[in-house]
Amino acid sequence: MRYTIEKGKHFFKPFQIKLWYKKTEFSYNTVFDNSCRNGVFLNNLFGVGYFPWCNIESARFGWLYDEVTQKIKLYAYCYVDSVKITEMIGSFGLNEELKLTLKVTKNEYIFSVYDINKTLGSVTNTVTIPHNNKRKLQYFLPPYFSGKAPQNIQIILL
Length: 158
What we know:
The protein is built from 1 helix and 12 strands; from the N terminus they run βββββββββαβββ. It is mainly β. It has one domain (about 1-155): Jelly Rolls (Sandwich). The N and C termini lie close together (about 5 Å).
């Protein structure tokens, strides 16, 4: 699905509501194109939140464009017991097709990135974040731009 955020907005369209119960794996292929070249803040790509609020317990992929290297930096971006945790997973070029997988185990969030074209399905980078979360009812955290989008931005999640 192609998500679009209009210049000056935060939320991508189309907006989707998805609920899960004890789902353990979330995976999407994505491509960051030239429209993703701006940004100062860490943005949400996708993830899972737990009721009642995603700033108490959640795990998501975050992204940020690095103007110096001209690459997209991908992050593991979580809230564990209301504490924000971010850890860089790696840097990737624009227009590279990536497969992103978030696995939820009993006590870890495992973030994996696969570069589809370079590694033929092998893991490129992995980050693990420990958690104590016992919640089971989950909801989809869709793409979100932190700050106001400086231009129209498109993200593909397949």
